[in-house]
Write a structure and sequence with these properties.
With 345 residues, the chain is α/β, with parallel strands linked by helices. It has a single domain (16-340), classed as L-arginine/glycine Amidinotransferase, Chain A, CATH 3.75.10. The strands form 6 sheets. It has a 4-stranded mixed beta sheet with strand order 3-2-1-18. A 3-stranded mixed beta sheet has the order 4-5-6, covered by helices on one side. A 3-stranded mixed beta sheet has the order 7-8-9, sandwiched between helices. The two termini are 30 Å apart. The chain has helices at 34-48, 61-73, 93-96, 116-119, 124-127, 129-135, 168-174, 180-191, 238-250, 301-311, 323-326, and strands spanning 16-22, 53-58, 81-85, 99-103, 106-113, 143-150, 156-158, 163-167, 195-199, 217-220, 224-228, 260-264, 271-272, 275-276, 285-287, 290-295, 316-321, 337-340. The protein is 27% helix and 26% strand. GO terms for molecular function: agmatine deiminase activity; protein-arginine deiminase activity.
Length: 345
């Protein structure tokens, strides 16, 4: 009798079937700068469809027609795009989309509770998004498992081999009455993982996710970790990110070896209407054959892209303009969610 492969959370660099996004519109928080942020979405969609399929959630048929026209004009491969009409509060699908476990030809859409980052924003429609996509038939035969515990996809990193990396600052905000041990057990059980690694340090001013790991440190193949560093001793982030770097250096792989660390350069402060925006290069997206890297119009953009490419060898590096995204406190990875290879859509 053939053993049934166990479910696990794949690493992002494993083969994918599609990337999932939601198109911005006037009813979202993007309303005041819609044209600027749409240009980022168009660039992202054109880049993704060079390599694989893209599923775009749209609010209605009018928005679908509008997005399709924009994408056609930009040369996106429309044959690789599927539109799905559903209501949503906003477009941060890394946090409201499904966390998909895979095992052989089995898939489980792990649907944690989405609370608008700890109740900061209304999130009722976003919390229902995974169920809506399931009802629309987007995920084929994948099972759907609802877990009544607040967790966002941007708050966890998986190496695909049983290790989860996360931040205490975020999860203690979501679950102030639970201990680290209790939360580790829930994460291991819910994500079918073997161990959870925690970071106590690391944050970015202008980030309202309470220090999501995908703005700070990312697993990469070959026991690598790519992380956002700050070499400017006058910057208020310097000490915190230095402490985070020390934590990362102290982490060990499952077989006891140190990780290979790849520090990313620090963008100059970006101030908008008197507030600093969180310009993290760690918030990149991996797709089949490529890695899409945020660019902010900063002198450090190219060096960040080079380092990320080095940590992900054999992939084309594509820069995507993301300055418009950080106005709403997120970046490239935050607006996307990948789906593992083999999922029907």
């Amino acid at each position: 009798m053939t053993a049934i492969p166990q479910l696990r959370l794949p690493a992002e660099w494993e083969p994918q079937s599609a990337v999932l996004i939601a198109w911005p519109h006037g009813g979202t928080d993007w309303a005041d700068r819609l044209a600027a942020v749409e240009s980022t979405y168009v660039a992202l969609a054109a880049a993704v469809t060079r390599f694989q399929s893209l599923i775009i959630v749209v609010a209605d048929a009018t928005l679908k027609a509008h997005a399709r026209e924009k994408l056609a004009a930009a040369g996106a491969d429309l044959s690789r795009i599927r539109f799905v009409e559903l209501p949503y509060d906003d477009t941060w699908l890394r946090d409201s989309g499904p966390i998909t476990l895979a095992g052989g030809d089995r898939f489980q859409l792990t649907d944690f509770r989405f609370t608008g980052w700890g109740g900061k924003f209304g999130a009722a429609q976003d919390d229902a998004l995974v169920a809506g996509l399931v009802d629309a038939g987007v995920f084929g035969h994948a099972a759907h498992k609802r877990i009544d515990w607040a967790l966002e996809g941007g708050g966890i990193e998986s190496d695909g081999a049983g290790t989860i990396l996360t931040t205490w600052r975020c999860l203690v905000q979501r679950h102030p009455d639970q201990s680290r041990e209790e939360m580790s057990t829930i994460l291991r059980d819910g994500l079918h993982a073997e161990r959870v690694l925690w970071l106590d340090y690391g944050y970015l001013e202008g980030d309202d996710t309470d220090a999501h790991i995908d703005t700070l440190a990312r697993f990469a193949p070959g026991d690598r970790i790519v992380y956002q560093a700050c070499d400017d001793t006058s910057d208020p982030h310097h000490d915190e990110l230095r402490r985070m770097a020390a934590e990362l250096a102290a982490l060990r792989t499952a077989d006891g070896r140190p990780y290979h660390l790849y520090p990313l350069p620090w963008a100059q402060p970006i101030i908008d209407e008197g507030r600093r925006l969180a310009a993290s290069y760690a918030n990149y997206l991996i797709v089949n054959g490529a890695v899409l890297v945020p660019a902010y119009g900063d002198a450090a953009d190219d060096e960040a892209a080079r380092i990320i490419g080095t940590a992900h060898p054999g992939r084309e590096v594509v820069q995507v303009p993301c300055r418009a995204l950080i106005w709403q406190n997120g970046s490239l990875h935050c607006i996307t969610m990948q789906l593992p290879a083999g999922m029907a859509h």
